[in-house]
Amino acid sequence: MSLCAIQRIPTTVRKSLELELHEEPVENVSPINEKKLDATAKAEQNGPILVDLEKQKAEVQPQTIGKECQLASGSINNVVAIAKIIEVNDESNSQLIHGVPLGEGNKRVLIVRSLVDEAKLPFPIKDEIVTVRDAIGTYVAWPENMIIFSTECEKELPAKSKGLKKRKRTEENDDDDEEDLDMTSLPPTIPPSLKAVCSWAKETLRNGNTIVCNFDEKIFGHASKTFVSKHDINNFVTMKEVSGSCICIYMSYLYGVLKKSKMVDMVGFMDTTDIGSIGCGNPIVRSRAIADRLKRAKRGQILLLPYNSGCLWMLTVINAEEDLVYFMDPLKRRLVTGEWKDIVDNGIKIHNAQVKRQGRKATTWKNCAGIPEQKTDKDCGYFIRYMKEIVEDKNLDFFSKWERRGKAAYTQQDIDVVRNEWAKFVVKTYM
């Protein structure tokens, strides 16, 4: 933990922490400096934007990283979105964005506001995110010569933004209020580690700053990274919707648990960004991602796949050796049908073809109807506790425990165990 980071944690909270984690950090992290969108700026001018392209090119330097910018399409005067430049500490010609090379002359940007909803992205994401409106909150590639930096950026907005500004302002201020949590409003029973993480995020992740978490290839079968914002952290602390980034962090913690119990060859994980229903490609792309992960798995190893259908986190467990799939839906507690089932089945078929397994029977799906049931529509992410119980069972006998429907339920204390483990891991690894 850096001296600077330590100084930002309240002394009383810092002294109350007793970290009980595995000895080796699983991830490396480096800060990304971003700038928060100024929700109070007024659109005072609606005239054409004049840009010196030579000067513009010279300005795309490290000092612009995290600064708000405007994105143009077709013509430099046709501004379609407000965004931020994102730095990932790699050479631009080696960077990947959504699995595709960033490309020379392009910058990675985070779109924070749409000005022309139907404007097409210069580089659509796998035929699923194709317009500026689709890409709000998403990292995309944008041609450097169509990125506008200006000290008057907030003032020189197109005419449409004037109508949107008033409507958007309340929403953005609401987000800011949500991110700046009042520590005194947290429940008295909240674990000290969660308070520490919340305090650290409040002081360190100001003005839109985020951190990038690098995951070793041993965790998900390939090296990967994810971005974590103050919003992600505060949602986790306050029992709101859980992001895929937070779930990936918890899986990296569980990987450490597996290392300590010498079970890494028995249980593996899959990155949520490879299989999610939004921004992860069409069904064939996601099936191939599953096949690739199975190819990198150890013989006899089961894989845990947290999957978000767009509104619900579910857990799928694949045993490719036995052509078995175990499914856990915390809300409905019944087998999935439709697209996700087809994606998994096709992924296993592709894998069997790749390893030349002949005469394999159709994959059998088994519903874990006895899993503890989710009580509200926001708690599904916290049911990553299913993964904890699987990882901690050296016999991997989870199906016998959860085969038959019952009245099992997690208490808030059960959920807080997971949240405490997650927070302690964040404290040790990132703070």
Describe the secondary-structure layout.
Blueprint: H1 3-7, H2 11-16, E1 27-32, H3 53-59, E2 68-73, E3 75-85, E4 96-97, E5 100-101, E6 106-114, E7 120-125, E8 129-131, E9 139-143, E10 147-148, H4 159-179, H5 192-204, E11 210-215, H6 217-220, E12 224-228, H7 230-237, H8 244-260, E13 267-269, H9 283-296, E14 302-308, E15 313-319, E16 324-328, H10 339-354, E17 364-367, H11 385-391, H12 398-402, H13 412-430
Parallel strand pairs: 13-14, 16-17
Antiparallel strand pairs: 1-11, 2-3, 2-10, 3-6, 4-5, 6-9, 7-8, 11-12, 14-15, 15-16
Summarize the structure.
This protein is an alpha+beta fold and 431 residues long.
Describe it.
The protein is of the alpha+beta class and 431 residues long. 33% of the residues lie in helices and 21% in strands. Strands 9-6-3-2-10 form a five-stranded antiparallel beta sheet, with no helix packed on it. A five-stranded mixed beta sheet has the order 13-14-15-16-17, covered by helices on one side. Strands 1-11-12 form a three-stranded antiparallel beta sheet. It starts with a helix and ends with a helix. Mean pLDDT is 77; it is low at 1-64 and 151-178.
